[in-house]
## 1
Amino acid sequence: MTGMPTIEEIRRALEVVIDPELHRSIVELDMVRTIEASADGTVAVTVTLTTAGCPIRGHFQTSVRDAVMALEGVRAVNVGFDVMDDAQKAALRQTLGRAELPDGALALVENVVCIGSGKGGVGKSTLTANLAAALAAEGRSVGVLDADVWGYSIPRMLGLGAERPAVSAERKILPLVAGGISVMSIGFFVEEDAAVVWRGPMLHKALKQFLDDVDWGHLDFLLIDLPPGTGDVSMTLAQLLPQATFVIVTTPQPAAQRVARRAAEMAHKVSLEIAGVIENMAGFVTPDGERYAIFGEGGGQELADELDVPLLAKVPLTMALREQSDAGVPLVVHDSDDPAAQAIRHAARGLIALAPPPRAPEREPAGFVLPMAG
Ligand SMILES: Nc1ncnc2c1ncn2[C@@H]1O[C@H](COP(=O)(O)OP(=O)(O)OP(=O)(O)O)[C@@H](O)[C@H]1O
Ligand SMILES: [Mg+2]
């Protein structure tokens, strides 16, 4: 068969694959261990990871595959992994000109989940705070990063804000803790209700700091409350967190669903996987049991079907959910029988079910090759 790319061409194509923790190309970092191309159009690439339990393995698998598949003549890509030995690590340290390899911004965080929507006011922050509490109630270690640097509301919803975060001996910022949830927000650093003006590079730096310089420690889940829309913050985070998945919040009406689809398109564009959809404000039930579909019906399911992802929950409007957000104690903690609380707990269990199993601490055999569909 003709037209297979050469090993050199494949290596050049892999230059676009960036190690999100070291911020450089895997080619430049000498992390591409082997490249083999067969005449039948199959390419096998082995990437060397700094640690066996590397959380960004999935990112490498997808990006390597995409980069090589884009070459003409390639029909299938197998991505394998091995782990650097001490000599290779020493060489990498030298390339990077630093004494220590970074642990990785979020090396000990198993799952990063961004909560986003196309438009504002659909309940992202309310759901983020309550999902975090629900995950904690399921025995998971949870953090919340309030990435809404303009309209932060997480501190209030989790009853935090009077305190300032401390700095550890390792010069890392320590998150505040509410109900067992580690929390970081720009709201902890500015005067109450002060308007915060962020522009491109500063914003990027602030978000990067929230990831790199905050001592998150080991977390099963880090939930990120995004600002409304599909702007700068989402793009920056997507760049910094290629391992993140996305949960899209929408209200039931068709117009909201169309806007939410835009958020999904953005997620696709930056190659973030969409974990699921949560429909919020899905009807209101009176104390007499009469149900009003205030914001319409069915938009969440339709969006989920269209994106081919699960509908994680339909969360009804309840007064208690709003009241508890204002009071700073998540409803799922305060009254776990409330219908909105039940729906949110259902969504939390869905997130747990979707999460890959926790990484095994022991080393995996070198040269382990993951089969990939062509
Ligand atoms: N299911 C619900 N039942 C009752 N009130 C709700 C529900 N969901 C959200 N709210 C209320 O709606 C308002 C907006 O919610 P929230 O601030 O969580 O939205 P948001 O999407 O984060 O908004 P923004 O885009 O401004 O960040 C809040 O007052 C919240 O308490
Ligand atoms: Mg919000």
## 2
Amino acid sequence: MDNESRFLCEAIVLAHTNSQNGGRPFGALVVKDGEVVASGVNEILNTNDPTAHAEMTAIRLASQKLKSANLQGCTVYASGHPCPMCMAAAAGRRKRSCLCLLQR
Ligand SMILES: [Zn+2]
């Protein structure tokens, strides 16, 4: 299995696990240089934060870990098609992250 497939599978497993734990079925990873920098799941229900989508959660954590809002060179792997908010966050100005997606 190549890295893209492996990371997409990891995002799907996160989504499935989150669903089994009562959350919404969405997971995401931020990867840089072939390594997972951060992962996230949809946390809307347990945080009451309407922006706590899996992609946003992973991007926030990756930015904290990398100590930079610039995620140049990172790739976001998502278990579903990102909404416009997440797409904008992943592809924002000065970032070169790209998305590998699975359609719902
Ligand atoms: Zn979103």
## 3
Amino acid sequence: MKSLLLTIALAVSATYAGITRISNGEDAKLGQFPYQAFLQLNNEEGKIFRCGGSIIDKNWIVTAAHCTIGMAGAYVIVGMVQVDNKTQGTKYVSDKLVTNENFDHATLENDVALLHFPQDIQFNENVAPINLPTDKNEDLVGKKFIVSGYGHLGRDKPKANTLQYTELSVLDDSKCEKIYNHEKFDGTKICAKGEGGKSTCGGDSGGPLAKYEKDNKTLMGLVSFGKGSCEGHNPEGFTKVVEYTDWIKGKMAN
Ligand SMILES: *[C@@H]1O[C@H](CO)[C@@H](O)[C@H](O)[C@H]1NC(C)=O
Ligand SMILES: *[C@@H]1O[C@H](CO)[C@@H](O)[C@H](O)[C@H]1NC(C)=O
């Protein structure tokens, strides 16, 4: 019985993670987030799931492992901010999903994955890669980063048609440890929270948490999990990308 309850609790948290949208965010303009990918994945049965991703190279997009695990295929649309606007965006079909070998669905450790694209992603003013972080010793606590995504607009609200974004502040891991029992904060995650109900929600998963320094943008986190109702009451967990820069570069080199 005990193990059954545990399984249910994890399934609930995983579901939330898998469906993670931005609540109380703002509409993005075309070209504002040139690294953002709208990601659609399908399982063997053909069921479709929405996630986010970030362009890091002409043939590679990074996302969360809980988005790719068990999936049979994926495509992205880049250079778009409105899903229903057929004049925007270019579609690329992935030929390879690379889920981190050590991804743990229970603890959401190593929640990082890559999508390979055989056709080069064409860069322009609306489509461009984001830098991977390199400084493992950078203290992130107190810093403000921008999260973006096409996830749900709030609990019981529809998925976003227009790309949403908002600002979150990084908190000490201890603030998340108090709230999350299963998802381990061991230095490989970022704990971050918005103000005034700003939050990620279902469908944002795998998307970017980015640092802006003048014109230099760096991918600091990946949307991984949250708890509550997308109302920003609790801080949320993000994969700390700098801990996986070597893994990402190793996969890209092979
Ligand atoms: C669709 O996108 C184009 C290109 O950005 C824009 O000019 C047009 O106004 C958009 N249409 C709608 C209905 O928003
Ligand atoms: C931009 O950010 C990346 C990653 O943090 C860093 O390696 C690079 O030196 C930065 N470039 C500039 C011009 O600051």
